[in-house]
Design goal:
- By secondary structure, this protein is of the alpha/beta class.
- The chain has 2 domains: 217 residues, Alpha-Beta Barrel (TIM Barrel), CATH 3.20.20.60; 54 residues.
- Helices cover 48% and strands 16% of the residues.
- It is built from 12 helices and 10 strands.
- Strands 1-2-3-4-5-6-7-8 form an 8-stranded parallel barrel, surrounded by 5 helices. A two-stranded antiparallel ribbon has the order 9-10.
- Strand 4, helix 4 and strand 5 form a beta-alpha-beta unit.
- Helix 9 packs parallel to helix 10.
- The radius of gyration is 20 Å and the shape is globular.
- Bound molecules: ligand LIB3CWND and magnesium ion (MG).
- Ligand LIB3CWND binds next to strand 1, helix 1 and helix 7.
């Protein structure tokens, strides 16, 4: 499936050091997995986690889920060995934390060759350089790192995420301008479904393709929030039908539910139907 049209509703972090969690992911209805060697893995476990993860990926069983390996930064003592190991793993992409500029991706690509790259967007410098990072030829997607961003910005948690908006907006603009995937940050309170839904809805309305998750309990809420609803699918079908009807009579504007429908709305309607089809295809 084309990486730009496949669903990325739910992207679950799994500590690379935990065989039980690595196994569990084989049966979770997530669209993608981030196999983590960075913050989810303690210093004591860093070296072993690389081997544990390589073995789990070699064993396979992850089906259509996109497999992304998050390495430690290249400025850490583990980064280079992680990158060399990840380049040989049976994974779809490598995720670099705390990307500040496109030069960081150049340095990783020198080690990892043809593997597609993803960038953690979680530093103020990264926000300011989002455009050049998104334009990197090896970059496939961006992941918001809202915990690190909050730390760097010295913001307090707010349900409306107002202090994050400038950074989220800059990264969204950059990703959309380059046609790259972009997924939202994690919601730390993994037992709070209501709060998660509010944040998912906000991220979806802003234009994120999906959300990163830390616990399996967050998957269903997220998959629902980032999938087209029945009402959206129904409206999309009616918009396309109404537009095709007026177009056949030489007109350029239809009206559905009291709102105009022009060719750009039809393009959005077709994208909604394509997304619903893609979700159905990977769920089958
Ligand atoms: C948060 C956790 C430490 C909770 O773990 P635990 O206490 O084991 O939870 P449960 O007992 O409720 O687990 C139930 C079962 O689910 C499995 N499990 C738990 N988490 C995961 C997971 N992430 N993936 C797959 N499976 C998972 C458990 O193994 C149990 O299975 P079973 O025994 O068979 O019933 C834990 O959830 C956790 O470690 N989560 C990941 C944390 C993480 O990845 N953190 C780093 C990413 S966040 C970040 O860094 C973002 C960014 O960089 C930023 O700056 O914002
Ligand atoms: Mg982080």
């Amino acid at each position: 499936m084309d990486p730009r049209t496949r669903p990325y509703r739910s992207v679950l972090y799994i500590p690379g050091s935990k065989p039980r969690a690595l196994d569990k992911a084989r049966n979770l209805p997530v669209d993608a997995v981030i196999f983590d060697l960075e913050d989810a893995v303690s210093v004591e476990e860093k070296e072993n986690a690389r081997d544990t993860l390589a073995a789990a990926l070699a064993e396979g069983g992850y089906g259509a889920r996109v497999r992304i390996v998050r390495i430690n930064g290249l400025d850490t003592q583990w980064g280079r060995a992680d990158a060399e190991a990840a380049a040989k793993m049976d994974c779809d992409a490598i995720l670099l934390p705390k990307v500040s500029s496109s030069a960081d991706l150049d340095a990783l690509a020198e080690i990892t060759g043809d593997k597609p790259l993803w960038a953690m967007m979680e530093t103020p410098r990264g926000m300011l350089n989002a455009a050049e990072i998104a334009a990197h030829p090896k970059l496939q997607g961006m992941v918001m790192g809202t915990n690190d961003l909050a730390k760097e910005l010295q913001t307090r948690f707010r349900a409306d995420r107002l202090p994050m908006m400038a950074g989220l907006g800059l990264c969204l603009l950059a990703a959309k301008a380059e046609g790259k995937i972009i997924v939202d940050g994690v919601y730390n309170a993994f037992k709070d479904d209501e709060g998660l839904k509010v944040e998912c809805d906000q991220g979806r309305d802003m234009g994120f393709d999906g959300k990163t998750l830390i616990h399996p309990a967050q998957v269903d809420v997220t998959n629902t929030a980032f999938a087209p609803s029945e009402a959206e699918i129904d409206l999309a079908r009616r918009q396309i039908a109404a537009f095709e009807e007026v177009e056949a009579s030489g007109q350029g504007v239809a009206v559905v539910d009291g709102k105009i429908v022009e060719n750009l709305h039809v393009a959005t309607a077709r994208e909604i139907l394509a997304k619903a089809d893609a979700i159905a295809a990977i769920s089958a």
